[in-house]
Every structure is written in structure tokens, then in C-alpha cells.
Sequence to fold (283 residues):
Amino acid sequence: MLRIALQSKGRLNEDSTALLNEIGINVDDSKRSFLAKTPNFPIELLYMRDDDIPQVVSSGTASLGIVGLNEVVEKGLKVEIVERLGFGGCRISLAVPKSVEYNGPQWFEGKKIATSYPSILKKYLEEEGINADIEVITGSVEIAPAAGIADAIFDIVSSGSTLISNGLVEVEKVFESEAVLISNGHLDSEQQAILDEMLFRMASARVSRDKKYLLLNLPSSAIDEAVKILPSMRSPTVMPLAADGWCSMHSVVNNSELWEKVRQLKAIGAEGILVLNVDKIIL
Ligand code: PRT
Ligand code: ZN
Fold:
């Protein structure tokens, strides 16, 4: 049995649950309790506030956790980053009131900066050789300058609209974050095998996301040219059609290249092109 700590509610909850479901681990979010078992996979889900996840993983209460890299780095506890998960993307930035004349990081010298991420900010200020006061605030950091609590803020930004609506301008992007899978590195062999199975499924799911399955009819004389356009996983599948001189070709292509491939295939006589979503590619 492997216990995984997840955010109970908030920005990462939905995507964390969706990731587990995508890799075939059924999570019934509607009926969940603080500690929930999954019916078809040997893991236990521990739901909690994101701030507490690095601590419960580092202490061994949970073996794994899904949390923002920002929380992991801020807490500075001993955990391993097993995998970057590609959701929950954001940055932690310095922002100043739009009325000030900003002239680079030295502007912050002697200023007061409000943040919920004092340790990441302290490291940045040290690296830049800036002396500034750090005012730790746990919520609504963006109102600090207007409320007279601080001269500037250091906070999470994603679309940037919260900054704009509070009359602030993002001036330094200090830290890039996304959701990560963390471990305390103390898994027994059974737990490691469960984690390996999860990572294998995640890798397959990730590869499948960008792929499309392509089916088309082609004059048999154009097979060689079509194989050059569609290298596929090994080589495309070719099957004869009932009509003489024609074949059907099946292949998997990157979504980003789809329309270019379609154009090239049409140019060599491909017809009846079908594009299907790929659910899973097993690596
Ligand atoms: O209750 P709990 O403690 O579990 O949750 P929380 O309120 O501390 O965190 P939550 O759910 O807001 O965020 C969880 C994680 O999501 C963060 O630690 C980040 O890793 C990640 N994340 C991604 C974000 C954002 N995007 C984000 N936009 N966390 C917070 N925000 C805030 C931002 O600070 C701003 O105030 O959302 C607001 C809107 O952002 P804009 O730039 O889109 O306007
Ligand atoms: Zn939190």
C-alpha cells in the first residue's frame, strides 16, 4: 500500500484527480473522506491543504505527494521531485504599484515586500545583493501596497489579471512552478513497484496526449512515398482494399504535424482521410 497526499480543495485538486483517473486509478471525488482507498489500485489518498503536503511526505506520513513546486521549495524539506506533472503552471514574481518608476531589481533596496513565500524571496534578494524587508502575509498579498502594508509584493501570478485589477505591474519573474510528484525516497520494494507502475502509466498517458491516429486510402503505387511522410511508431500498417490498386494505411502522428502531413498525403493521392484521438499508447 502506498499513501499519496493530495490537495483537498483548491487549484490542484481537480487536475490531480484527473491525472489519477487518466492512468486508470479510479478516484471518486464526490464521496471522498480525509483518507480514501481506491477500488482498483493499491494506493491510499490523504487529502489536505497544499501547505502541509511537503511536511507529511518528508515525515513519512505519506510516501508520495502532489503539490506545487513553489510549496516544496519554500518549505525546504527533504523530499525528492519524482516527476513534473505539467499542470498548475504559474510563476512567483515581484510586482510594484504601476505609479512607481521601476529601474531594475535595485529599486527594491530598502523597500518592504509582502509575500507568502519568504524563503524563495530571501534567496533571490541575497543573490541580487539587495537589502529589503520581508513582510509575511498568508492571504490576499496583492492588496498590501494599497493598504499601506508594503511597497511591493512577491506573489504567484498566472494570467496576471489579479495584479492588473490591483494596480500592480509584474517586474521580475523569479520562480517558475508547476505541480510535481514528490517522494520521501524511503519506499520499500512493494511501494517502489507501485510507484514504477504509476510512472509507466503516466509516461504512456503523456505520449498519447499529443498523438492522433490517421487512417487513409491510397493508390498502392504511392505507398513508398507515403511511408516517407508517415514514419509512424515502427512503420505504418498497410492493408489492401477490395478495389484493385488501392490500399488503406494506418499510422500515428504528432498532433502538431497533423495538417502538414495531411497536405502532403493529399498531394500523393490520399483519400478518405480519418483522424481519431488516441486514448493510450503503451510504451
Ligand atoms: O487551501 P490550500 O492551502 O490547500 O490552497 P491555497 O489557497 O494555498 O492554494 P491554491 O489552491 O490557490 O493553489 C495551489 C497551487 O496552485 C499553488 O501553490 C500553485 O502551485 C498553483 N497555482 C497555479 C496557483 C495559481 N496558478 C494562481 N493563479 N496558485 C495561486 N494562484 C493565485 C494567484 O496568487 C492570484 O492571486 O490565483 C490568483 C489569480 O491569478 P492570476 O494571475 O491568474 O490573476
Ligand atoms: Zn495553501
Notes: The helical segments are 13-22, 53-59, 69-75, 118-128, 161-165, 189-209, 223-229, 258-267. DSSP finds eight helices and 15 strands in the chain.
